[in-house]
């Protein structure tokens, strides 16, 4: 019995090389696959001018247009950074090295589903793929080190099933509307508009309401937002980044598709529903950020705030549309940067609470600096793209004459700014409570984060013309 105990102890304390030498190839292979996917997405961007789009595939179930092209490049760029982070952590984490095979397999299945979902030309197919991505993500969430990670994973799945059920009710209401009018309905994005009517139609309006409400829940919009802070905090940081910067964007694409279909139909109703959810989300985020004392949950509530800003921008459309698209793109990199850096803080300090952390920038100079940069980008400081995007959204709101939305957004973002600074800045620059030399980070771990910072600065100062044209094309597709 004692021999068995000593053997188990030896396994738990062994280095990754001793524990699982036959899995050392998995993390490099994950990076290689992510790199191939990223190169393929960039090749699509380079070889397919906007004038040649859209292109349809797989019996028109898949489409390559400006929207799908932008988000395919975006999610694969983020995933490449997350994969490199996994590679850097796998050598120092026994927990990660033990289940790297299953994690890598789930992540690759997740990304395959996300890519197909982003390119989907059929709303019901996209709906099914969003749910499949949740099924792949839930086991990853359950690998977190919270008090009850499996319980969090089950609640995440339950919320996802609930929000997507509401969305499906919307599809059924649209079908009922078409049936009552004797019209054939197809849920292909390029054909659904033929089954809609400009006349007052209760079933059509109810269907639109359910779809936006359900997908709003997937985006973390109030009132169905509570899954997001809990899940993002409890999941491993790489999974939090996947959910916040990758899965989030397939739900954004679904909302964009609905807006594209409903252009000219129920525009005022769409605007009012998005406006209300945006108001509620900003208020909820501001209140919660003031009370939170956990840096990972703080990032999660900032994600709720970001969803509120997106909803307000989409409710205005027109002049704010370009700002919304730029904000979504920049937010993906900000979230990834913050969550991956939070993973390094967790690895060194062993906690997500702010109280035990002080003087992080002295203990972990590089990670502390990157976390500071990420916070500044999150709060909308120049020269980051988030600053330019927020200014464009606010400008669009003013041009639309909605002074209430302008005032609320300014006040709530100011509260979030002050509350975040009060919580985070002492953690970063206070007197250090940890003895010993500074903790250094490998260049492999630093590379993706530096890449994200470079992209944020580039988009906020001078974006290459092809990228700007792509952003403009997506903005125009949603009414900009």
From TrEMBL:
Give residue ranges for domain NADH:quinone oxidoreductase/Mrp antiporter transmembrane: 120-410
Q: How does it sit in the membrane?
A: Multi-pass membrane protein
> Where does the record place it?
Cell membrane; Membrane
Segments crossing the lipid bilayer: 26-50, 62-88, 154-175, 206-228, 240-262, 274-292, 298-317, 324-343, 363-388, 400-422, 442-463
What keywords is this UniProt entry annotated with? Cell membrane, Membrane, Oxidoreductase, Transmembrane, Transmembrane helix, Ubiquinone
The main location class comes to: membrane
Which terms in the GO cellular component ontology are assigned? plasma membrane
Coiled-coil spans in chain: none
Quote the protein name from its UniProt record.
Answer: NADH/Ubiquinone/plastoquinone (Complex I)
Supply the source organism for this entry.
Albidiferax ferrireducens (strain ATCC BAA-621 / DSM 15236 / T118) (Rhodoferax ferrireducens)
């Amino acid at each position: 019995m004692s021999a068995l105990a000593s053997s188990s102890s030896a396994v738990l304390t062994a280095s990754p090389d001793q524990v699982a030498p036959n899995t050392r190839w998995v993390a490099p292979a994950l990076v290689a696959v992510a790199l191939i996917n990223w190169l393929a997405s960039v090749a699509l961007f380079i070889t397919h001018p906007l004038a040649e789009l859209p292109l349809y595939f797989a019996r028109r179930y898949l489409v390559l247009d400006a929207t799908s092209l932008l988000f395919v490049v975006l999610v694969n760029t983020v995933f490449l950074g997350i994969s490199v982070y996994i590679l850097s952590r796998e050598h120092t984490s026994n927990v990660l090295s033990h289940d790297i095979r299953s994690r890598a397999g789930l992540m690759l299945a997740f990304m395959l589903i996300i890519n197909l979902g982003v390119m989907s030309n059929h709303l019901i197919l996209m709906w099914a793929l969003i749910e499949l991505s949740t099924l792949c993500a839930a086991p990853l969430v359950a690998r977190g080190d919270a008090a009850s990670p499996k319980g969090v994973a089950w609640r995440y799945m339950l919320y996802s099933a609930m929000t997507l059920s509401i969305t499906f009710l919307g599809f059924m209401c649209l079908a009922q509307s078409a049936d009552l009018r004797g019209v054939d309905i197809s849920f292909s994005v390029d054909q659904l508009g033929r089954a809609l009517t400009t006349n007052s139609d209760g079933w059509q309006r109810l269907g639109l309401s359910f779809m936006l409400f359900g997908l709003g829940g997937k985006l973390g919009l109030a009132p169905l937002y509570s899954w997001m802070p809990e899940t993002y905090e409890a999941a491993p940081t790489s999974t939090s980044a996947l959910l916040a910067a990758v899965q989030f964007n397939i739900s954004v694409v679904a909302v964009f598709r609905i807006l594209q279909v409903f252009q000219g139909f129920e525009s005022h109703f769409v605007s009012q529903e998005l406006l209300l959810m945006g108001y509620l989300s900003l208020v909820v985020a501001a209140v919660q950020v003031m009370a939170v004392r956990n840096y990972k949950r703080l990032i999660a509530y900032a994600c709720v705030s970001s969803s509120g800003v997106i909803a307000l921008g989409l409710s205005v459309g027109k002049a704010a549309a370009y700002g919304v698209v730029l904000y979504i793109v920049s937010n993906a990199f900000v979230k990834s940067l913050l969550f991956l850096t939070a993973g390094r803080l967790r690895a060194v300090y062993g906690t997500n609470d702010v109280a035990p952390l002080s003087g992080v920038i002295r203990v972990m100079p590089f990670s502390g600096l990157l976390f500071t940069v990420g916070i500044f980008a999150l709060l909308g400081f120049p020269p980051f793209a988030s600053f330019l995007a927020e200014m464009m959204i606010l400008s669009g709101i003013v041009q639309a004459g909605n002074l209430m939305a302008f005032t609320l957004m300014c006040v709530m973002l100011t509260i979030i700014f002050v509350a975040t600074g009060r919580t985070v800045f002492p953690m970063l620059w206070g007197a250090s409570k940890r003895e010993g030399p500074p903790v250094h980070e490998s260049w492999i771990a630093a590379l993706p984060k530096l890449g994200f910072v470079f992209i944020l600065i580039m988009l906020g100062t001078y974006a290459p013309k092809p990228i700007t044209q792509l952003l403009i094309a997506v903005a125009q597709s949603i009414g900009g």
